Structure prediction request, 401 residues.
Amino acid sequence: MQHLAGLVTGVLTYVLLTRLDIRRSLALAAAALVLLDSYAIALEQHVLTETFFGLTMLGVACAAILSRGAGGLALSGALLAAAVTIRSNGLFAVPVWLLYVLWDRRSLLAMVMGVVSLSAVLFGYAALHAHGDPTRNSNPGELSLTEMDGWFLYARVAVLADCNVAHVPQRALAVCQPPEERIRDAQFYLFNPSSPAKLLVGVHRTGSQQAADNRMLRGFALAVIRSRPGAYARLVGGDLVRLFTPHGKGVDVTVQFLRPGPTVPGGGRAPLPCSNCDVERSEPVPTPDRNRWFPHFRPRVHAPARLLVAYQRWFHTPRWLMGLLAALALVSTALALTPLRHALTHRRETFLLGCSGLAIAVGSVATANPLVRFLVPLVPLLVCGGACALTDFARARERQR
Prediction:
């Protein structure tokens, strides 16, 4: 199903661009970037949210752009809310979508339908959290979209946490570390049993305790950011640049095809550790956890693994190109605020597509460990937005001649 979703995403990319009167050769190249991306194909082999998140976000744009009626905007709003329930960092695209709805100047009915459908799904999902999870004897009684935002933000800023400056919650003082013990590894703070937060909260907690822990860590993280806003901005800015830099950090085995090693009994080959991964290097699931649930399972690599590994050296998400396309969308949006806006016929579509992708990228880096797999589902948005911006710039230059 995920491979099928990836194919549908590529087809939608081509359909959207051709419907926007983008040159077919450029639309075909954009679709090829989406369809042939080996990082996306590798991700589709894992039980992760990126594939359906990418398809849903592209569906948000298609429904909003290709339909002028109230029904299309209502569908777009509902899809955006659904995307947020798949990956909470979709929230960062909501302001972009709302600005697009206002900028596009549709009928009042269409705007109301869009906002109502967005709000209904989001608040409905949040109400499920407020109701609680009976399997964990929990009833937090608060509207929320996730019970992990505090954990992720804590892991993001723990390296900056100076509790001599930040006014953190009393209970959170136990997670403070001296400078020499802090490390720049959000994965450690989030998942490692030896992280200060894990040692503080312990295990076998009820759902209400987990919600309280999340609030405590959210308060800790926000206090750290308020105390060191400049350091936090530099941390986020540097990691954002690295996300769009070739051979930058953030690669793990979820986007890498495993290289085959020695032959193992029963057929296949043992996977070799990822040579250029800086997060998980061999398996996305820790070996002790895998052995606990599937004690007789051993990962095996089969043919044509070598061909796929060779293919991936050349055909994977071009990180530098995604950064360039995001920059083009920003330039187009800036020019849309000047008298040159009349030369940019796709300025609204460029804004919705490109700036939605960029907003999610920035939000992901600001609130979680920056990983390349967070960038992969944004490729269709950035590619389509960049294609619209390139077309507008090229046509404006031709008019000047």
In short: The beta strands are 260-263, 269-271. The longest strand covers residues 260-263. The longest helix spans residues 108-131.
